[in-house]
Structure formats: structure tokens, C-alpha cells
Design brief:
three-stranded antiparallel beta sheet; 10 strands; 21% helix; OB fold (Dihydrolipoamide Acetyltransferase, E2P); 148 residues; alpha+beta; five-stranded antiparallel beta sheet
Amino acid sequence: MRVEIKIDPTIEDSVAVIHAPKMTPEIIALVETLEQADEKCSLLFAKSDNKLFVIEPEQIDIIRIEGNDTKLYNRKAQEYIVAKSLREVGELLGLAFVRISKSAIVNIKRVDYLAPSFNSTMKIVMKNGVSDYITRNHLGDFKNRLGL
């Protein structure tokens, strides 16, 4: 792999760009390393049983809209309500999170398995047992993030 570094004092924020013909395990590891070095969100606040909890992003499996609430499910499938919209939560989280539909975002590090479903969608099951569907509109982006 060839590495280039361009120093430009006029740039306010560092940006890493990777050009590659396809996603490989090495690139995924590199992205994870860069992601850990500059996490967008170190924690998220969520409610359950009238208590406010601090949730670290790596503990989240899935975040989705249910009714009028934005809910997140942690590694133990415990349910929490977040006082932000799904879009706002998605902007706070790092690269390990990817949108799978208009109403759900998942942690790609916590995917258990995928299965074909109806109408060109895929069922996604998280390691905590919670499942949802990847819509056709988001399937391409999801596969790209996984290197498929």
C-alpha cells in the first residue's frame, strides 16, 4: 500500500481519504484504527425506567424509530429511549454505524447474520437477537461498508 501525506496549513480539520479498488480486511482495520483515534461521539444519553443512562457507542447494536420514539438496543437487547431524532443520533456516531432504512441504523461490528427477504430486502439480525430489514435503497451502501 502506498501512503501519501499532504501538509496544508490552510486546512482546519484533518481528513483521511483511502482510494482502493475494493474493500479489504486491511482497509477495514485501518478505518477502525482511524475511527478510534477520532471518535465522533464518546457517549450518548438515553432513558429507561425513568432513569438517564450514559451509553457508549460500542455498546449499541441498533437504533431505530418505533412509534414516535427513537429507541436504541444495547448488547443485552435492553431498550432505551433517546431524546434525539434518528438523523441527529446518526450524525453523532462514528463510521461503525450505517443506516439500513429510513427508520434504522445499525452497528456493523455487531451484525450476527443477514438473510434474503421479500422485495429485494435483507433481514439483518444483530448479535443481541434484535432484527430489522435492510431496504433496497440502503442495501448497496450497506454492502459497500461490509466490503461485499
